[in-house]
Amino acid sequence: MQNDNITREKRANRTLLLTMAGIVIAVTVIAVIGFLFMNRPDSYIEGQVEGTNIRISGKLPGRVAEFYVHEGDTVHAGDTLVHIHSSLVEAKLGQAQAMQEVASSQNRKIDAGTRQQIIHAAADLVEQAKAAETITKKTYDRMERLYSEGVIAEQKRDEAKAAYDAAVASRNAAESQLSLARAGAQIEDKQAAAALVNAAASGVDEVNALLEDSYLTAPFDGTIDQIYPEVGELVATGAPVMSLLRTGDRHIVFNVREELLADLPMGRQFKVMIPALGKKEIEVTVYYIRDMGSYATWRSTKSTGSYDSRTFQIKARPDQDVPGLRPGMSAIFEDPGK
After folding, report:
1. What average pLDDT is seen over the chain?
2. What whole-number distance in Å separates Cα of residue 170 and Cα of residue 55?
3. What is the extent of the structural domain holding 180?
4. What is the pLDDT of residue 297?
């Protein structure tokens, strides 16, 4: 009886061992078959579509009065985008224009010369001086004759001579005043007045240059990507008001390991797949390659067996216009090194 139990136990152990061995063999065979026949997964490199996007801003601080576009609108170069109102700058324009008018009036006054009333008065003084000179000349001649005849003393003759000389000097002074009145302002005064006019005009031009930015226009054809402030909000000098995406400027950016550069040289054409466009494939061409940069004290961390792989940025441009291609979309192509 005991022998039968031992025999049954040995048979059960043998059966268990054979079963486990069969399972191990089966798993091993399946693993080998799977390794031999399983397709290796493809290796892909993913990039992103980008475009030229600029921020529209101006030199005029003020309040947003009105937008003439909305996000997503297509605009052309020169289209008006927004109106920014600045009461402060408009007040400065009025002040500058008033200063310009004052300077211009002063310049016209100087150019017009001395008033006619002053010229006539100066001419009358000349005539009076000439009359006095004539009388003193006659008196002096008479005194000179009487002195030569011994009728009067020398002092009387000298007094008459002094009176005559004074009359001559008065006549010369009166003629000089008349000449100045007719000539008007000095050349230096005219130049100074003209300079004030130019300075005032420059002030007006400066304010007008600021007011030109009260209406911001599109610098090129594009699409309004984003508008930042709302109507009624204040914007500072140089603050971005909206961003504009240039029409037709689309490129794809990839970051790849340096060992792939040999397969992606400048001018290389290859196909990429755009998932957002129904997995559409488009032809692109490499036009830009740049090192992504590293630490200034970079050095290899693997002294044997391998090396550190640097990363390079590659940009590729579609060979043809692709409708619907927008920045932010993914672009995928198969790793050429695989």
Report:
1. 76
2. 77
3. 114-184
4. 44
Q: With a cut of 90, say whether residue 22 has pLDDT above it.
A: no
Task: Tell me if 237 is assigned to some domain.
Answer: no
Task: Give the largest Cα separation in the chain, rounded.
Answer: 201
- Whether residue 296 is predicted with pLDDT greater than 50 in this model: the reply is no
Structural domains of the chain, count: 3
The answer to whether residue 212 sits within a structural domain is no
Does residue 67 fall inside a structural domain? no
Is 273 contained in some domain? yes
Please indicate whether residue 135 or residue 68 has the higher confidence score (pLDDT).
68
Q: Where are the beta strands (DSSP E) in the chain?
A: 44-56, 62-67, 74-75, 80-85, 215-217, 222-227, 234-235, 242-257, 269-274, 280-291, 311-318, 330-334
Mark which of 159, 184, 209 sits at the end of a domain.
184
Q: What is the pLDDT of residues 53-68, one digit of tens each?
A: 899 988 878 888 899 9
